[in-house]
Every structure is written in C-alpha cells, then in structure tokens.
Amino acid sequence: MPDEDGYFGETVAARYDESSADMFTPDAVDPAVDLLAGLAGEGRALEFGVGTGRLALPLADRGVPVHGIDMSRAMTSRLSAKPGGDAVGVTIGDFATTRVPGLFAVAYLVFNTINNLTTQDAQVDCFRNAAAHLEPGGHFVIEVGVPELRLLPPGQTAVPFRVGPTGWAFDTYDTATQAMSSNYVTLVDGRPEYAYYPFRYVWPSELDLMARLAGLRLRDRWEGWTRKPFTHESRGHVSVWEKPAV
C-alpha cells in the first residue's frame, strides 16, 4: 500500500473528480441519491468509502444527516473543502472495521468500493460492520459490477477496457483467488506513467451469503440505480439488504 491514505493518496485525490467526471453527472448521481434518501427517511445515512463526497454532499443537501468513513485524508479533505462539506461528518479509518457512534437508517458502499477490500474476510467484516451500525429495519446498499469473466478466453488473464492515443487500461483476473487489478498506462509529455489498483471481485450470491452471516437479508437487487431488473446480461447491480426490525 503506497502510504497511510492507501491507494487514494494525494496524487489520485487531486484528479479524482475530473477522472471520474461521468460519475458526477446528474444522470449518475440523482437516481442514487433518490434511492438512498428514500431508504434513509427521517434517519441518518452512513457512507463507507465517502471519498470526495460525490453522493454524500447531495444526500446531505436533501436534508439527510450523513457521516462517512474513509481511509484517505487526501480524498476527504476535498469533500470538506466543497460547498456544504461541513455538513458531512468524516471519520478516518478502515470502513470494514471502524465504528462511529449511533445507529443509521441506511449504510451504503458504492462505485465498486467493496472490491477495494482485497480479502474475503475483510468483505465479511464489512457486512458485519454495516449491520452493527444499522438500526432495526435499516438497510445496507452496495453498488458493484458483475465480474466480467465471460470476456476471458482460455489462457487469458487480462481484459482491456480503454485503448487510445494517450493511454491504455486493462483489468487482470485470477479465477483461483478472485484477485483482480486495474492497470493504467498513461502518456504524460510523451512518457508513460503506470498506476495499479488491487481488488477482490465478488459475486452477487457471495454477497448474499456475507449478508446472511451478518444477520441481514436481501430485499432488492436491480441492474442499477434506476431499478431496472437484474438479469443474466447485467454488468452490475445495486443490492439492498435489510436488518430485521425485531
């Protein structure tokens, strides 16, 4: 891990919003905030991996009290500096294990961030941590892609997803361990720069089992935030697990 901020240190934080600009558009943000605000109701929301506040800030602007947990001081400093940033509480720590005071109506983990936990044990701990923060009847929401192993022919471990005149990007997969990585080669002033981010991919059914171990049960699963049905061809999903009210 590069430094105390993990893989999301100052270099990444400085360009994060720009590099992920398509995820900051109203089409990407509004449906997610609508769903999360509905689940929060009159209660509080807890974001695991709050980052620069892409969803936390508009959710707080809806009147939902939001608290975030994140390892990266570099990322959360951008959140705090934005308009309305003082309305979002932030705790620095590993969201798989870090506890904050009080209970929440909804906890959420978006944009494939569950995969940043690179062991199954850490992912299980994350579900347990979410459940411990939820009030009875509360919900845990995850947005994550479906592993794209169908794109791998025999003998191949890499899947390119960006090829252009200024750089290339590809994912690598190890189907024995569920380890994967995203790799970026970018030309800067004619010289290549390389960035590497490790992940652990996880299947929807595996997440459901993690939820059961934490005392949660699946309530809904859609292809995305607009609540289209999840199907065999879906490349991602938004899943909602519920903590029993009793």
Automatic annotation (TrEMBL):
Source superkingdom: Bacteria
Membrane spanning stretches: none
Keywords from the named record: Methyltransferase, Transferase
GO molecular function, one term: methyltransferase activity
Any one of the GO BP annotations: methylation
All residue ranges annotated as the Methyltransferase domain in the record: 46-138
Organism: Streptomyces marokkonensis
Protein's UniProt name: Class I SAM-dependent methyltransferase
